[in-house]
Amino acid sequence: MNGYLFYSRADAAQNRIWIDTAERWGEPQANKYILGLHAHLEQLSKAKALWRRLPKNLVAPADSETSIFLSRYERHYIFFRELPSGKIGVMSILHERMDLPVRLKEDLTSIIARPR
């Protein structure tokens, strides 16, 4: 089964991306970027060959037994895992200029502390 779901922090991130883009570049560009992001997620859900496994020793909380994958869409990194249904669960979406290790650890710790 293909498809994707958002964890709450990733969902909030895509909302922030839309708002920030709309304020800076206008609503048409914000819509285009978010639609492109969703098209990218749909591609990821259908093609595991595009997945890049994140080494567990980098930022994943120690109690995480699940493999975490990443992909890049334009200026953002998308972190996700495979759900039992076969869909991907989008855990975090971070801009390339963010402190990725710190922000990712915050997002993953939040998810592990409170599962979907």
From TrEMBL:
Superkingdom field: Bacteria
InterPro entries: RelE/ParE_toxin (IPR007712), RelE/ParE_toxin_dom_sf (IPR035093)
Pfam families found in the cross-reference section: ParE_toxin
Keywords: Toxin-antitoxin system
Gene3D superfamilies associated with the record: RelE-like
Protein name: Plasmid stabilization system protein ParE
Organism: Rhizobium paranaense
